[in-house]
Design brief:
The protein is mainly beta. The protein is about 10% helix and about 50% strand. The chain contains one helix and eleven strands, in the order E-E-E-E-E-E-E-E-E-E-E-H.
Length: about 140
């Protein structure tokens, strides 16, 4: 089971996981800077669930600003039939790409998906075989 949080940024709610990147509405921060998001609505860490009313007390999400970019163009076309009225507009939303570094609740860090998968891989390694040089001679 993976750990995740639901955060609010730019007027929207996002489900975020550590080690993944997300595009959100433009944030006033330079690329390669660390930011802390404290608008955390929900946190799940394996079997532990924290639900905020409306925010989870002491919960933060650490993120790094990767880059600023623009979304694809959206065309807005308005026309009134039989009136010779046509209006065409385009819009590109300004975005910021965030890499989620970690989720913490009350100062304690929530395990990331990468750490959990590494721990599972180490525990799945076969145990070393016993020494084969010892034999029964009769």
């Amino acid at each position: 089971m993976t750990s995740y949080a639901i955060i609010e940024t730019g007027g929207k709610q996002l489900r975020v996981e550590p080690g993944r990147f997300y595009d959100v509405n433009r944030i006033a921060a330079e690329p390669d800077t660390q930011i802390t998001i404290d608008q955390v609505l929900f946190v799940q860490d394996d079997d532990t669930i924290s639900v905020g009313q409306p925010l989870v007390e002491g919960a933060t999400v650490e993120a790094t600003v990767l880059q600023h970019l623009r979304d694809r163009k959206i065309i807005v076309y308005k026309m009134r039939p039989k009136k010779k009225t046509r209006k065409k507009q385009g819009h590109r939303q300004e975005l910021t790409r965030l890499m989620i570094n970690g989720i913490s609740v009350g100062g304690s860090s929530v395990k990331s998906a990468q750490k959990a998968s590494t721990a599972k891989a180490k525990s799945a390694e076969p145990a070393p075989e016993p020494d084969a040089s010892v034999t029964d001679d009769e």
